[in-house]
Each structure stands twice: as structure tokens, then as C-alpha cells.
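To fix ideas, we quote verbatim a fold written out as C-alpha cells:
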Amino acid sequence: MTVTAAMVKELREATGVGILDCRTALQENDGDFEKSVDYLREKGLAKAAKRMSREANDGLIHAYIHGGGRIGVLVEVNCETDFVARTDEFQGFVKDVAMQIAAMAPEYVSRADIPENVIEHEKSVYRAQSLEEGKPERIIDRIVDGRMEKFFQQACLLEQGFIRDEDTTMEDLLKTQITKTGENIVIRRFSRYQLGEGLGD
């Protein structure tokens, strides 16, 4: 199949990937748009994985207020250079991260940030629940593992489905941003405040 300039342009606009890579993807996939997107995504994520080992000491601290002042988020997102930190693309990503935190209330950036005692406590609660529900002892470990995965998906920002597209995780969004900018990007830390939350505890 002949790959046209219009096809390359459409794929480039959809993915943010360079012209030559878009043309190669279309040629490799007989002009199929969706398969070409997947091809670039797989290739891009591989590139992103290499970049994720690089130092990221620049970036932005962003404040986001939601719900007429009822929810506030402060988030730090790092990149490698001030040049990328000033781009609309990066700043838009940081705002999306802050909105995600406001809407979905994660407790941690990733599961690596969760203290071991919190994980052990959650496991013991799920084990007790399973026994209370009368589940057979031989399958309780599998049940606990399944419930822990759901816990991680709710508690960890990077494992949550993106509020604008639930089929995309925040980690997918982060890796796409790394591919687009060509720099390592790290969601370093955040704080979320909700009016009245925690008072009187």
C-alpha cells in the first residue's frame, strides 16, 4: 500500500512522533492507522524506559484549586531542562496531573512509595475479610493478591485510569510525555487538601 503525506501527517498529529518514524510505522503496518499507533506506542515506550533512568532536576511546582476552593493540590513534576519545563506541552501535562490528584485522591505516586507496614496492614484486613466471608483457606492468598491490586490501582497515582481517558493509566500518560519531550519526567511528590478533611480525627 502507498503511504501518502496526508496519512503521515494524520499519524504525526495523533502521536507527536517524528515524520520518518510515522512513515516507517505506516509502511510496516500496510497503512493501518490503529496498528501504526500501537507500533509507535510500543517503540516509544521502549525509548521512554531508557530515558527514565536519567536525572530530572528541573520542572514545575503547580498549585491547583478545585470546587470553588474546596479542594487544593500542590504537585512537583520534574524534567531535565528548563526549556522543556517552559513548554505548553509540559505545563499542560502538569495541570492534568494536578486535576487527576484533585479528582481521584491518590495517596502515593507509585506502589514503591507505600510503607511496608501499610501494605501488611491492608493484606491482614483483606485476609480477615476473606475468612469472614467463608472463603476456602487454599484460595485466600489469591483473593488477597487480587484485592491488593485493586488497592494499588486506587491508592497509586501512576496506576489510576486517567480522568480524561480511563483506558489510559497515568503511567501510560507519563511515558507518552517522556517520548514527546525526549526527556525524563518524574512526578516527584504531591499534597492534596480537602476542606474540613482530617479535622477532629
The domain at 115-154 is CATH 1.10.286 (GTP Cyclohydrolase I; Chain A, domain 1).
